[in-house]
Each structure stands twice: as structure tokens, then as C-alpha cells.
Amino acid sequence: MSGKVVRVKSWEEFKQLIIKHNPQGIAYNIEQGVPARNLTGLRLILPTEGIQYVFIDTAAKDRLRKTGIPLHRDKRDNLFIRDEDIINFVKSKLKRKDLKFYSYWTI
Predict the structure, then answer these.
(1) Are 46 and 29 in contact (CB under 8 A)?
(2) What integer pLDDT is reported at residue 98 of this predicted model?
(3) Structural domain that includes position 10
């Protein structure tokens, strides 16, 4: 599949695109940096015909900067995001319980 990638800067704009395109699902990637203590982020992807819309959110203290999704700390004080926090946040903001989520990893 070829097409263009459009970076969406705000959560509100990304939310409106989801409403407009009414997809069955969206993809997401929890991005851990090295060290994860300081570099945790979220990438949400809305694939549509010919365009992939991408929204990126990064950590700021104990939550994600744009969405406010809370971060958690493990035993070694590393920050992390729980999959269920992402899914619950998006579903509650869109009021769509039927939306599917597809997690993916990159190397």
C-alpha cells in the first residue's frame, strides 16, 4: 500500500478525523526510549484510503503531554504506559465501544 503520511498535531484534530472516517480500528505503538525512565511516548495511527494519519504524544512528568494519559512507574522507577489506559482513553473520548485497537512494535 502506498500513500502519504500526515502528522496530526493535536488530539482534538485526531479525534475529529476518527469521527469523520469512522474506522473499524486504529493502530498504536507505545514507544519506549533508552532509558525508558525519561523517554516514553505514544503513536496513534488512523489508516484511511491513501493516507495514514499519525498522532504522537510524549511524556511530561507523570502523564502524556497532549492527551493526559497517566504514566506508571515500575520497580526500577521507569515510566511506562498501559495498553488498557490508551484503549480506555480513546474509547471514552470517542464514545465508541466497538472501536478495535491493534498494537504494533517497531525495531
Answers:
(1) no
(2) 93
(3) 4-103
